From TrEMBL:
GO terms for molecular function: dihydrolipoyllysine-residue succinyltransferase activity. Residues 242-264 are annotated as: Disordered. Its cofactor is (R)-lipoate. The keyword Transferase applies. This is Dihydrolipoyllysine-residue succinyltransferase component of 2-oxoglutarate dehydrogenase complex. Pathway: Amino-acid degradation; L-lysine degradation via saccharopine pathway; glutaryl-CoA from L-lysine: step 6/6. It is an enzyme of class 2 (transferase). Keywords: Acyltransferase, Lipoyl, Transferase, Tricarboxylic acid cycle. It catalyses: N(6)-[(R)-dihydrolipoyl]-L-lysyl-[protein] + succinyl-CoA = N(6)-[(R)-S(8)-succinyldihydrolipoyl]-L-lysyl-[protein] + CoA. Residues 2-77, 99-174 form the Lipoyl-binding domain.
Length: 493
């Protein structure tokens, strides 16, 4: 009797993930709750534990494969001999030469196709069980497909660039004595130009391209020296050697004519970046989005924070930042203008009598929005602890899908990057998003006198289908009032 290993729940709006790494191979003994593989969605990494002890039998979804929720990943058999074929079977002598099909794994209920991005092996190559064969791309993730068994790659059915459906065959692996099929389906482009036997992990290649690191400059720790994502992160964190003296500048007259083509680099957009682009554009196309602006004098909030930050950190074990003030101010304003915290569902308006606050955060792989549930009922300390925890998980890529679902309103802080003013884009199906910006000293007229004050521009983007201009302006004014006199938050004014 075998136990099925299936994809766990990925969140209410996430229907697929990519099998990033298998930690075990067929025939290995596994303990209950031992990590079998790692899945990647467009934002987080999920580890899949063994549901029971036994022997890992068949790996149905190889590395690089895109799978849907509850899709079959592998099977676990009972006892040490589960994975082995009966020794007395007459066909045992030909088992080594039997062929195994490499299939596209389950892509999820809403995903019907993927693109073969690259082949790491060529027809005729010997492959080990679980060795990476190719990489597939969907609209959200890249999936590495491992070999389901050891043998010889005898046929590549879907070359690079081919779009395949969820049930398509990618290749055929024969036994040790198998002969390669005719090379008509073979993809010569799979050979690596750098002369390496295997390609680097796609996530590592993207990260190297973004960091401007040349191929071959990072030492790989993966199979056969393959460069993995953590190798690039380690190389980026390593101390940089002292730069050599710059050569003398070449006189302008001696320079050759510029060859723009040779100075450009073309990198294919990752599926994640394509998805982010699509969702943001869909938001603009769907909602009647409008932005209203105001500015806030941060003098009182900064003074209150300065006065109590040491005591606050000593008592609560977390720093007192500005985000808790803004979160509190927004929760206060949303009570007065509930349509900013609502959403449209068909011809209905769904009002939320709670605030699940999304805090937008930039990461090396893209924008994520972890959600702080029931922020309206939290204290300053609880909010700061939640923000710190979610921010740390976002940077480490450890956010779960549940932690990014169910937001009712979002705050985006472009000020940490130096932005003075911007118009944030809605995070559907939400109807409002507040944009924070850089605090900058500016001359202001106060009681007939020109004084220097720390000012911040605020921007509220809202869905004009549900939020009228009066409501949007009222919301922003209430946020401004709460920040300019934080005592109002204590008095619920």
């Amino acid at each position: 009797m075998s136990i099925e290993v299936r994809v766990p729940t990925l969140g209410e709006s996430v229907t697929e993930a990519t099998v990033a790494t298998w930690f075990k191979k067929p025939g290995d003994s596994v303990a209950a709750d031992e990590m079998l593989c790692e899945l990647e969605t467009d934002k987080v990494t999920v580890e899949v534990p063994a549901p029971s002890a036994g022997v890992l039998g068949e790996i149905v979804a190889a590395e690089g494969v895109t799978v849907g929720v509850d899709a079959l990943l592998a099977t676990i058999g009972e006892g040490a001999g589960t994975a082995a074929a009966p020794a007395a079977a007459p066909a045992a002598t030909s088992a080594a030469a039997a062929s195994v099909d490499v299939m596209v794994p389950s892509l999820g209920e809403s995903v019907t196709e993927a693109t073969v991005a690259s082949w790491f092996k060529q027809v005729g190559d010997t492959v080990a069980a679980d060795e990476m064969l190719c990489e597939l791309e969907t609209d959200k993730v890249s999936v590495e497909v491992p070999a389901p068994a050891a043998g010889v790659l005898t046929e590549i059915v879907a070359p690079e660039g081919t779009t395949v459906d969820a049930t398509a065959k990618l290749a055929v692996i024969g036994g040790a004595g198998a002969v390669a099929a005719p090379t008509a389906a073979q993809n010569p482009a799979a050979a690596v130009a750098s002369g390496k036997d295997v390609e680097d992990a796609p996530s590592a290649k993207v990260m190297m391209a973004q960091a401007g690191m040349a191929e071959g400059t990072v030492q790989g720790t993966g199979r056969d020296g393959r460069v993995m994502k953590h190798d690039v992160q380690a190389a980026m964190a390593a101390p940089k050697p002292a730069a050599a003296p710059a050569p003398a500048p070449i006189p302008a007259a001696a320079k050759a004519p510029a060859d723009n083509a040779g100075r450009e680099e073309r990198v294919k957009m990752t599926r994640l970046r394509q998805t982010i682009a699509k969702r943001l554009k869909d938001s603009q196309n769907t909602a009647a989005m409008l932005t209203t602006y105001n500015e806030v004098d941060m003098t009182e909030t900064m003074a209150l924070r300065k006065e109590y930050k040491d005591l606050f950190e000593k008592k609560h074990g977390v720093r007192l930042g500005f985000m808790s003030f803004f979160t509190k101010a927004c929760c206060h304003a949303l009570k007065e203008v509930p349509e900013v915290n609502a959403e449209i569902d068909g011809t209905d308006i769904v009002y939320k009598n709670y605030v699940n606050m999304g805090i937008a955060a930039g990461t090396p792989t893209g924008l994520v929005v972890p959600v702080i549930n029931d922020a309206d009922s939290m204290s300053f300390a609880t909010i700061e602890k939640a923000i710190a925890e979610k921010g740390r998980k976002a940077r480490d890529g450890k956010l779960s899908m549940d932690e990014m679902q169910g937001g009712t309103f979002t705050i985006s802080n472009g000020g940490v990057y130096g932005s003075l003013m911007s118009s944030p884009i809605l995070n559907p199906p939400q109807s409002g998003i507040l944009g924070m910006h850089k605090i900058q000293d500016r001359p202001m007229a106060i009681n007939g006198q020109v004084v220097i004050r720390p000012m911040m521009y605020l921007a509220l983007s809202y869905d004009h289908r549900i939020v009228d201009g009066k409501g949007a302006v009222t919301f922003l004014v209430r946020v401004k009032e709460a920040l300019e006199d934080p005592r109002r938050l204590l008095m619920d004014l």
